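Single-chain item
Fold in token form
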Amino acid sequence: MSSYNIALNFEDGVTRFVECKPGQKVLDAAFRAKINLPMDCSDGVCGTCKCRAESGSYDLGDEYIEDALSEDEKDSGLVLTCQMVPTSDCVIAVPASSTVCKTEQSKFAATVSRIEQHNDAAVVLDMNVDATAPVFLPGQYINIDVPGSGQYRSYSFSSAPGESKISFLIKKIPGGVMSTWLESAQPGSKVELAGPLGSFYLRAVERPLLFLAGGTGLAPFLSMLEVLARTDSQQKVHLIYGVTRDLDLVQVDAIEAYVAKLPNFTYTTVVADADSNHPHKGWVTQHMPAEALNDGDVDVYLCGPPPMVDAVRRHFDDNGVKPNSFHYEKFTPNAAPRTA
């Protein structure tokens, strides 16, 4: 029997993956990886190691006391890592920072393999990882050290987890640190990265999905769509991809390819420019079909600039839309993403 990948998501945004052997408890697997999860008794008595299992299957046994973990807490997804024995890959939210748990971001090196310019809007950056392929949750981001600048920039993966080739969709910013470097960078250039990070990622797929992307906020959805395709998802997925100008519509061919790969995938592209001849003009909130909202039985994922995120939130509030879950990530140029 193979081991399981356990993603530990710390409250400061850092994610670390540990290998958990069959029959092994999460606390022990983390300790083997030199990660000190919160604990005291390790016997299911104190409740100090309480975390939240966000996805995956597991067994908690019956050797803990109710004062440490009540039935209501158990039913809500809370677990004791000193008792939790995974029976699949799992994602666990840890209510402590990575530094408190004596760990930090994983760091690795990669080599640029391709740089593709998309007008003045964006750049597709492909890299080959020099060692072990990085593991991350689809939707997460990473910090890339910009060579020669002493600075880093944060970008969501547009590729699927676990591959030696990683890809990013990067917004062009005149005079920007990364944009300037990309103007002269060549295949073969070496880059240092650290991560993964972020709480914006694809959860267990149990109902229809509505993806809302603004500009280069498309990137994490390409990663999610690839994972859905590889797992042969039959769930309904609708993507609305909104941009300012016609020239900002990039990688539409990559989106179109998922129509064949995912049997229940549909998408709409929207351009805000009133002078555009695009068939769908305006804002994403004006092109949100009722069937995509599924009377609230839908999980909504949104990634875009702050004004777009705020507009969608207002739209939901004003129209009484209450999705089953709503995960969003705001991004601004030269700033790390903020999630909810």
